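lol ok so funny story. i was supposed to be doing the assay writeup but got distracted and ended up predicting the structure for this chain instead. priorities right. anyway since i did it might as well share w the group, maybe its usefull for someone
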Amino acid sequence: MDMEAGKTLTNEEVIRELLDLLKKNAMKEQANDVFEICSYVDGLEKKIDSMTEELTNMQNQIKEMQEDTLVNNAKKALSEAQERLNARCEQIKSQVLEVKEQVKSTAKGIVEEAKEKGRAALYRVSEFLGIKKRFLDIRENVRGAIKTTDKDIAKTALLAKGFREAGQTVANAFRTFADKPEVDYSQKEQKHPITKAVLAPMKAVKKMLVSIEIHLDASIDKLDNLAMDVRMDKEKNKDDMKHNDQMEADRKEAAPERVEAEIVYAPVVAETHEYQYNADAFEARGAADMKVEIGKEVSKVREDKAR
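and the output, tada:
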């Protein structure tokens, strides 16, 4: 599978969905960690693709080297070195693809559970720590490739030097035979075709391998940071829940006292009379006025009799 043919992890829909859920649930640190881990994996893919291109270029350069007996023997050894590096590169590429698939699978499971169970399911992002073992294996493979490449670079440099010096010796021998002065090649910088065809690409590959190792170190550190951020968020959430529970308990404990205080010390309010604003009320008031008038007349009659 060609890495360039696939999507980068940071552009995968499931990764974007997971990042969105983390941000919406106030888990910004975890979202940043996940994004950076995915970015590191994408970076590894690009570096390995570049290394593959360099090795392909090396292979083509070896094939195009001038044909002669000495060079043909060297070409075989150089081709074997290139094939070793290429095999190691393919192995690393396969390991990175496995990491990529595991990240996507883990993200998918977390997203599906988070939709059902909410924020608590997002703590499962710590499961990304499961790819740490894969990163460690890749790093070990890369370190092995660096050692092998260093040896191949040293041998190739020695081979190029031998070819260069042999050519210079032969050239001076012809000059001597032709009664011409020898040339001091130590004062001239001359490179054998092997240097361009093999040595330069090997050094470029070695540089990429070192860069990949540094990249892997950063990825492993980021996984550890993610696990720590999840743990800290859990502890903080636990403390917040305890605090809220305590506040609720305090509120319930204080509630009866406030009710009792309201009952005991509540001011007495006079009863309100219901006022009637209809015809019955008017008649009732008229009857009362008539009783008052009758009472006045009775009193007046009694006073007259007394006189």
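The chain has one domain: 3-252. Residues 3-252 form one domain.
back to the writeup now i swear
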